[in-house]
Every structure is written in C-alpha cells, then in structure tokens.
Write a structure and sequence with these properties.
8 strands, two-stranded antiparallel sheet, single chain, Rossmann fold, six-stranded parallel beta sheet, alpha/beta
Length: about 230
C-alpha cells in the first residue's frame, strides 16, 4: 500500500506572515513531494490584537478542516514552533513536529528584552510599536499579547510524538539553550540539530530541508494505517 499523501501545516513566526522566505521555501519543497500544504496567516484578528490564544485557534481551525484519514505534521518557525509544541499538548492527533528555532520562554525573553520599565510603559500605554517583517512597517501590538503569553509555560514542556528541532548556535533572539533544555526534557521523542546559523536559519535551509524530508518519511512509515 502506498503511503497516504502527507498534510503539513506551516506556522510562521512573530511579526511575519504566510509569504515569508521560509514559508515559501517549505511550501515549494513540500509541494514537490506531493504534500498538501496549509500556510495560514496567524496575524488574527489583526497583528495588534494577536495573542498565542488567537493563533492557537487559527491552527486548530486549520487542523479541524483536514480530511479525517490524514494525520498532519506541523512545521513551525520561531513563535510558530512554540505554537506547534502547544498544539501537541492538546487532543488533536499529530504525526510529527518540525520546529525551527522554536520560541520557548517567550514571556521571559520579552521581560529580558524590555526590562521592567519597558513592560510597565507598555502596560500603561496599552501598545508597543513593533517592526513587522511581513508588512515591512512598524505597527502597534497590544499589551494583551504578553499577558496572554504568561498563561503558556514552556519550561519542562513535554511532547509525545516524533519531533525534530533545528536551532542556530548563533541565535540572539531565542537562545539555543531553550531548545537544548527542551531536548533534555524529551530524550525519547526529540531530535535536536544545532546549526552554525542565526535565528533566521536562512543559511541552512537546504540542509534543513534534506534532513526534514528524511525525518518525515521515517515518521510517515511508522504512522498507523500505512
């Protein structure tokens, strides 16, 4: 019996969109192996109003619309990688995860970046200006974003499905230590590939794809119903 067509949900990163370099790269490569690819816009209901909760709802709706005989894979970049790991905590069945510099420790990292004064200013003003790479403009983000993020603890996060993580050792946005800790907490399910790259991982995309393709083939061969 031939393997079923694989369905991949690609979740883009923070201040990005479905037309990002990595989203297009993976959509093209996956289409070439006859995979069904879904790349939603996670800036819902708008970037200013976006939270992890709203993004999880978008991802959940996409997965709910997939054919019942398909067990999907999620590829997530940065905050999309964090979202993918959070989706895996739900009852939604997944075949595997591919995480690209996943944004674990989000509240902690924002606190470190802004400091107590910056967070207080954000709370008082209600918004903070953020450069949105997908829109190529500076745009406001509501304080609700960080309040909502505090509900999602990622320290000690566990996953029960095959997961591969790619992380650049020169990442200055999400320290590679976040993924190293995630790997230590999930020795039986997580494979970690530390690359000589930064947070964007653009220099390593071809290498990441070749490894991902092999990983997905192995995960698909082990899935039930094949």
């Amino acid at each position: 019996m031939h393997p079923r067509r694989i369905t991949v949900l690609y979740l883009h990163g923070f201040a990005s969109g479905p037309s990002s370099t990595k989203a297009k790269f993976f959509a093209d490569r996956l289409a070439a192996i006859n995979a069904n690819v879904i790349v939603p816009d996670l800036n819902q209901p708008s970037f200013a109003e976006m939270t992890l909760t709203s993004q999880l709802a978008v991802a959940g709706n996409c997965l709910a619309a997939i054919d019942e005989d398909t067990t999907p894979v999620i590829i997530g970049s940065s905050m999309g990688g964090l979202l993918a790991a959070l989706v895996a905590q739900t009852l939604i069945p997944l075949q595997a995860l591919v995480l690209l510099a996943p944004g674990f420790g989000l509240p902690r990292r924002w606190t470190h970046m802004l400091g107590a004064k910056g967070l207080e200013d954000w709370r008082e003003q209600g918004t903070i200006d953020v450069f949105h790479h997908g829109l190529n403009i500076t745009t406001p983000l509501n304080y609700d974003f960080i309040l909502d993020a505090q509900k999602f603890a990622t320290d000690g996060l566990r996953v029960k499905i095959p997961t591969i993580v790619f992380h650049g050792k020169n990442d200055e946005t999400v320290p590679v230590e976040e993924s190293l800790e995630f790997g230590k907490n999930n020795p039986e399910t997580v494979r970690l590939e530390v690359l000589d790259d930064d947070h964007q991982l653009l220099q390593s995309l071809e290498q990441i794809w070749l490894t991902t393709k092999e990983f997905l083939e192995q995960a698909q061969s082990k899935s039930p119903g094949q």
